[in-house]
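Morning run. Coffee first, then this:
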Amino acid sequence: MVTAIVLATALGYLVIAACYLATRWRYARIRRAGPRRPAVGPEDLSPFELGMLAGGRQRVGEVALAELYLSGRAVARGHGMVARTPQGGSPPAPLSPAPFARMLDARLTAGRPVPAEQLVRVAAKGDPAVAALWRLRRLGLFFAPERLRRVGGLRGAAWGLHMLIGVAGVASGGAAVLWAMVPKGERIDAVPLVFAVVLITYPFLLYLADRLIGGMQGAVVAAALVTGAAIPVVPAPRGLAAGLVLLAGWSVLNGVYRWTGGKLGPRTVAGDALLAEARADLPGPEPVDTALRATALLGFQALRRRPRAGRVPQGPACAEFAAVRSFAAACGSGVGRPNTGLGGNFAGDGGSGEWGGDGAAPPAARRRPQPD
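And here it is:
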């Protein structure tokens, strides 16, 4: 039985890896056949369109939230909450003609904090975001959905099977803990107590792994650790040893997925070239525009990190950008998502968002740029 499970799972790994490699090869061909030089420059795109190009729909919402904050209409309350700025201070600065920040402003009411991630989703899922997405497609910076449908469908099916095997591995980790903790001579009487202990400890390990590593990879690592710890104490360790090998193979397969581009995004080579040009020449016509463009290129997740050479860019040297950086930290870890994959690493429609908890965050002071 154990041999059959190992062989079937190994065969599944080979099929999934072949799908990852084949879809990456086909995706590279599609990108080579697509637009290679942008028809416009970074100055022809608004900060919101630049955010869509860099990080998808959710990045658009982050730029809108940053504009709302810089205009003096919103303030972070900590723990991922945003509220309307109290009345009585200086009048807020005018918003840009784009409707994104206005949509968020309409959701804020005095005295009622709103989760920052909820505001970001409002801007990300609105019709203006769809209009920005289609403009980027017409400019040749994004592929049309039908160009990537077959590649994305095959890769998505392989990824789904990959995750399903990971879920089975995580469940087997719980079974390994249960098997190891039941005393050999009291397997019936001790079952209720052991179940209680497992339900307390194993979910905590999964939560800890999710905080340290994240995603299914963290859960699989936790399952591998408890499986390896159970091998010396179970009467028949052969099955657990085979499970440990399969969990290691799952992690290797996950590395293949990331090495081949992760979730292949819709950005064309021309879109990559325009982003590189935007990063090389970031300053905008005024400090607020510069801060919004930097937010569009980096995203809230990068803004929360301490700037480090070669990893996290320093960003423009203006007070507005420093204010947005502190605001992003106060909004908590629920806002922002990485953009590390080839072609953007977000879904073909511009991204749907992957949200975590609010997290503990310090409050940020209100900041509004002073008129010249």
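Confidence is low (pLDDT under 50) at residues 338-342, 345-372. Good start to the day.
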